[in-house]
Amino acid sequence: MKIIPAWLLIILIVFSCKTSRVPTGSYVSQSRLEYIAKYHDFAIEEMNSTGIPASITLAQALLESGDGNSTLAHNANNHFGIKCHNDWNGRTYRHDDDRKRECFRKYNSVADSYRDHSEFLKGKSRYAFLFKLDPADYKGWSRGLKQAGYATNPKYARLLIGIIEDNRLYMYDRGGKVTEIQQTDHVIASEQADNGNLFIADENEFTIRTGARKISQLNRIDYIITRPGDTFESLTRELGLMKWELSKYNDLPENVQLEPEWILFLQPKRSQAEQGKNFRIAKKNDNMWSISQEYGIKLTSLYQINGMKDGEQPQPGQKIWLRKNKK
Questions:
Q1: Who has greater pLDDT, 1 or 253?
Q2: Does the pLDDT at position 24 exceed 60?
Q3: Rounded CA gap, 120 and 9, in Å?
Q4: DSSP codes of every residue in 207-244
Q5: What is the pLDDT of residue 215?
Q6: Which residue segments constitute the domains of the chain, with CATH numbers given?
Q7: How much is the pTM?
Q8: Distance of alpha carbon 190 from alpha carbon 50, whole angstroms
Q9: 11-20, 113-122, 135-144, 217-226 — most confident range
Q10: Secondary structure in 3-state letters for the chain
């Protein structure tokens, strides 16, 4: 048996370690779901301290960082694509964007990036109007960010809304957590985003199970079916909502006694029914509130569409318009 000299053995070991090492700058990409699971707590913390919806923070991070796989995210911990600007005194990173070697902010950690994103929105006057929106209005926030010039992509608002709805990120806005998704009869219109990901632009019906409570969707609005013993107070605690939300979203007084089998919306209703549902013929026991709940239409909008006075009720056989009648 031939004995290898000690000096040669050392050289072989050193060479083996060097060649087996992962090259600098390489990494294993992560999926969108992996990113959400890893960083959603940061978004919730920022929501609790600043009022920025967690769904918006997560959606922006996912879009701007390519699910955490972008060069900026890996080399600068910058998950929101925030450039240096004149008021930045921290570390910087040069990266080709609209122009060559543009200056971007560099952070010590991902958590620092999330905190600075909140401070960036809070500190710029052009974003001030966003903080006056309904806290659950992620669509308003998405459109407002585009309007205020956060990004130049004309589809920016639609991309954010698609990411939020595709991944049910709005559950984090109300303190919930998606444990199971059961899709039912639905129509999906997908669009190719700039980063190659597909997102759902429209979806008529789906069901989410969060714990023991089933959350469904009508006219693209989340709702539950009430059970015996449900109250605004008990549901507010269970679903992590604010005290005023359920009564406001459902056109109900705060002291109303809930009945079993009612549709109860968890988001603002819309100004008209979904496409294809133009009108309905009123039945014997119909009233304007029950019709507004059946189709997810704001009660005031339903009265306006039909040219009726507040409190007026339909007669059996009367045609009640559910969408604006252009004629």
A1: 253
A2: no
A3: 56
A4: EEEETTEEEEEETTEEEEE--TT--HHHHHHHHT--TT
A5: 77
A6: 32-177 (1.10.530.10), 198-321 (3.10.350.10)
A7: 0.50
A8: 33
A9: 113-122
A10: CCCCCHHHHHHHHHHHHHHHCCCCCCCCCCCHHHHHHHHHHHHHHHHHHHCCCHHHHHHHHHHHHCCCCCHHHHHHCCCCCCECCCCCCCCEEEECCCCCCEEEECCCCHHHHHHHHHHHHHHCHHHHHHHHCCCCCHHHHHHHHHHCCCCCCCCHHHHHHHHHHHCCCHHHHCCCCCCEEECCCCCCCEEECCCCCEEECCCCCCEEEECCEEEEEECCEEEEECCCCCCHHHHHHHHCCCCCHHHHHCCCCCCCCCCCCCEEECCCCECCCCCCCCEEECCCCCCHHHHHHHHCECHHHHHHHCCCCCCCCCCCCCEEECCCCCC
Exposure of 142 in the CB half-sphere (CA atoms within 13 A): 26
> Using CA atoms, how far apart are residues 218 and 204, in angstroms rounded to an integer?
7
Provide the token pair at 127. 């974003």
Residues 174-200, mean pLDDT to the nearest whole number: 39
> Comparing 8 with 221, which gets the higher pLDDT?
221
Mean pLDDT of 281-292: 93
User: Residue 112 is which amino acid?
Assistant: D
Give the range among 4-8, 63-67, 135-139, 281-285 with minimum mean pLDDT: 4-8
* Percentage of the chain modeled with pLDDT above 70: 78
Q: What is the mean pLDDT of residues 37-51?
A: 93
Cα–Cα distance, 95 to 115 (Å, whole number): 22
